[in-house]
């Protein structure tokens, strides 16, 4: 990193070295679907770029599928697929099918297997109406479906997805998530997903690696993480009339608004306490909210640590 | 690293399709070099007439015009200029990332991607130059000179492209390489004999200049075709072209490897 001090920077600049990632150690088994998350600037994309061979590490070692990505990039890339949500791998001005054909040649795929693969993806991702349209004319959601298909044509063993659902509507996200889940389950493809969309993580990933300021601060299952941080549930009750909460429940009241009350109840007490809360008055409506992963991650981002 | 011709043919094919999405743009790109060739030829014809000179640099008026047409035509074949801007942009913006995650050799990818327009321009230019050379008359190359010329042209294109690739690869270290490109074009237009044959310098200066890599870009192929060199001298110059092309390409590939190690992959 270079400091700039106006005209003096023409002659002299102070350099400062910034370590983007410090102590990243993890192993991934075949077929795992991993969410690699962290706040902006944590080092997520840098890690992905190291794993895909784009960047050279200044120290340490990396092995994926037995390859050292940055020194064996050419041979290694035959076995991986990469989708960067903010960058495109398709040729902009020609139909999607021509881009697929180009990638068939680049990955030296057998024509019959390639056609079978395109047929499968056309059905799974509903690409039939898109194949003959130039990429520049596709919507974002349509393009992402095509990008993901293109990245998987050569049956990679590992896929790296960097924000694949960014900017997509709910339906498009759902379609892509379903597709990725199917690929992961049926073909045992290992998937490493970086995203800020926690719904992607909740729906797809069994394991989460949380990185902050270049360090791993959590590496484990999603369930364990939620159990660790989600200790309470919000129970929202709307009564016919305002009620007076007895002293025993006064500490549970999180917020009130006329006859609407939100109680924060310990997870393992919910089944016992909710009926008693309902008996405080004549309840019109009740709903129970469990904090989402997004809420948990906000706490982790703020605290910067979630070490087990 | 194995190099599969099929994948780069596919890259070429895809780029042709890309280009022909914008037909008018392609037609303009094809005829532009031809217009430049004709303009340069016409300019020098007028210059000769006005100055009343019979010879420049050891070449008669007609042969000199053919020399200029030949070297302009060969320059048309070079896909270098477009590859500098594409490489510079891709490195600056981080879009080179999308090339590096595929099993392709990036410099070779760029070369093939930028080949269609110069290739097609060159084929049309060949027709134009052949007709003009026939009309103008002047020196007709012998069989041996023609053979040397045919061997010289690929070396010229390889050397030209090596220079352009080298400048593009500097994008790993320098944000804006276009000042370097402009300086290179200015220097090479004189040192290569593009503006005027190196015979104008004469003596030791000419001998040194014609064995530098810049002479490979214009003076050697143009000089062979127009009879300035023949026999062993022509063969020696063609050999020096290939020697320089090999040295430059090894340098460029070394720079590329170093550049990749330094690459910071801008953006998320």
Characterise the protein shown here:
The complex is a heterodimer of chains A (about 300) and B (about 270). Chain A is about 35% helix and about 20% strand. By secondary structure, chain A is an alpha/beta fold. Chain A has two domains: about 20-225, 3-Layer(aba) Sandwich (Rossmann fold), CATH 3.40.50; about 230-300, Alpha-Beta Plaits. In chain A, strand 3 (about 160), helix 6 and strand 4 (about 190-195) form a beta-alpha-beta unit. In chain A, about 35% of the residues are buried. By secondary structure, chain B is mainly α. Chain B has one domain (about 5-260). Chain B contains twelve helices and two strands; from the N terminus they run ααββαααααααααα. Chain B has helices spanning about 5-20, 25-50, 60-75, 80-95, 95-100, 105-115, 115-135, 145-170, 180-190, 205-210, 220-225, 230-260, and strands at about 55, 60. Chain B has a two-stranded antiparallel ribbon. The longest helix of chain B is centred in the C-terminal third of the chain and has 32 residues, at about 230-260. The model of chain B has no long low-confidence stretch (mean pLDDT about 85). Chains A and B meet through helix 1, helix 2, strand 2 and helix 3 of A and helix 1 and helix 5 of B.
Write a concise keyword list for the protein shown above.
heterodimer; A: 308 residues; alpha/beta; Rossmann fold; Alpha-Beta Plaits; 2 domains; six-stranded mixed β-sheet; four-stranded antiparallel β-sheet; B: 268 residues; mainly alpha; two-stranded antiparallel sheet; 12 helices; 2 strands; globular
* Average pLDDT figure of chain A: 88
Largest sheet of chain B: 2 strands, antiparallel
Count of alpha/pi helices of chain B: 12
Which superfamily, in CATH terms, is the homologous superfamily of the largest domain in chain A? Answer: P-loop containing nucleotide triphosphate hydrolases
Stretches of chain B where pLDDT is under 50 for at least 5 consecutive residues are none
Question: Into how many domains do the coordinates of chain B divide?
Answer: 1
Main sheet properties of chain A: 6 strands, mixed
Helix content of chain A: 25-40%
The CATH level-2 architecture of the largest domain in chain A is identified as 3-Layer(aba) Sandwich
Alpha-beta content class of chain B: mainly alpha
The rounded Rg of chain A comes to 25 Å
CATH topology of the largest domain in chain A: Rossmann fold
| Percent strand of chain B | under 5%
Taking the alpha carbons of the first and last residues of chain B, their distance comes to 29 Å
Quickly count the domains of chain A: 2
- Counted by DSSP, the helix tally of chain A is 11
Give the integer mean of the pLDDT values of chain B: 83
Helix-residue proportion of chain B: over 70%
Written as H for each helix and E for each strand, in order along the chain, the element string of chain A is EHHEHHHEHEHEEHEHEEHEH
Q: What is the chain-wise order of helices and strands of chain B?
A: HHEEHHHHHHHHHH
């Amino acid at each position: 990193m270079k400091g700039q001090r106006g005209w003096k920077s023409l002659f002299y600049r102070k350099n400062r070295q910034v370590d983007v990632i410090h102590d990243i150690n993890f192993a991934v088994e075949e077929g795992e679907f991993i969410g690699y998350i962290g706040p902006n600037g944590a080092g997520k994309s840098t890690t992905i770029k190291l794993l895909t061979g784009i960047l050279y590490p200044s120290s340490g070692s990396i092995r994926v599928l037995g390859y050292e990505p940055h020194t064996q990039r050419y041979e290694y890339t035959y076995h991986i697929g990469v989708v960067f949500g903010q960058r495109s791998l398709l040729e902009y001005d020609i139909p999607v099918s021509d881009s697929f054909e180009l990638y068939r040649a680049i990955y030296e795929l057998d024509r019959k297997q390639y056609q079978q693969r395109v047929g499968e993806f056309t059905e799974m991702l509903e690409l039939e109406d898109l194949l003959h349209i130039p990429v520049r004319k596709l919507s974002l959601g349509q393009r992402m479906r095509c990008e993901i298909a293109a990245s998987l044509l050569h049956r990679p063993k590992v896929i790296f997805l960097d924000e694949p659902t960014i900017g997509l509507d709910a339906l498009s996200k759902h379609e892509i998530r379903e597709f990725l889940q199917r690929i992961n389950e049926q073909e045992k493809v290992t998937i490493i997903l970086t995203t800020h969309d926690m719904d992607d993580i909740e729906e797809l990933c069994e394991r989460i690696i949380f990185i902050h300021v270049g360090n791993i601060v959590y590496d484990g299952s999603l369930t364990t993480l939620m159990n660790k941080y989600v200790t309470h549930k919000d129970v929202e009750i709307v009564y016919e009339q305002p009620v007076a909460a007895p002293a025993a429940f006064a500490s549970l009241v999180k917020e009130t608004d006329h006859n609407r009350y939100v109680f924060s109840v310990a997870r393992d007490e919910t089944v016992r306490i909710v009926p008693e809360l309902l008996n405080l008055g004549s309840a019109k409506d009740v709903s129970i909210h469990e904090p989402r992963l997004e809420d948990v991650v906000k706490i982790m981002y703020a605290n910067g640590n979630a070490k087990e | 690293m194995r190099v599969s011709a099929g994948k780069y043919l596919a890259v070429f094919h895809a780029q042709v399709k890309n280009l022909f999405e914008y037909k008018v743009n392609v037609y303009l790109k094809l005829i532009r070099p031809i217009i430049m060739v004709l303009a340069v030829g016409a300019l020098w014809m007028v210059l000769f007439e006005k100055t009343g000179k019979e010879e420049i640099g050891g070449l008669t008026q007609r042969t000199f015009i053919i020399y200029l047409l030949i070297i302009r035509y060969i320059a048309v074949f070079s896909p270098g200029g477009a590859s500098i801007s594409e490489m510079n942009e891709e490195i600056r913006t981080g879009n080179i990332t999308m090339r590096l995650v595929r099993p392709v050799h990036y410099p070779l990818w760029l070369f093939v991607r930028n080949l269609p327009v110069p290739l097609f321009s060159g084929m049309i230019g060949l027709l134009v130059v052949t007709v003009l050379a026939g009309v103008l008359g002047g020196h007709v190359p012998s069989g041996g000179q023609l053979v040397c010329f045919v061997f010289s042209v690929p070396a010229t294109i390889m050397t030209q492209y090596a220079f352009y690739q080298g400048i593009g690869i500097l994008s790993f270290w320098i944000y804006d390489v276009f000042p370097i490109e402009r300086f290179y074009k200015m220097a090479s237009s004189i040192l290569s004999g593009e503006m005027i044959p190196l015979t104008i310098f004469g003596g030791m200066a000419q001998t040194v200049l014609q064995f530098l890599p810049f002479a490979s870009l214009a003076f050697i192929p143009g000089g062979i075709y127009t009879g300035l060199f023949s026999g062993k001298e022509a063969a020696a110059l063609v050999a020096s072209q290939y020697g320089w092309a090999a040295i430059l390409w090894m340098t460029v590939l070394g720079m590329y490897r170093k550049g990749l190690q330094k690459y910071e992959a801008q953006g998320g």
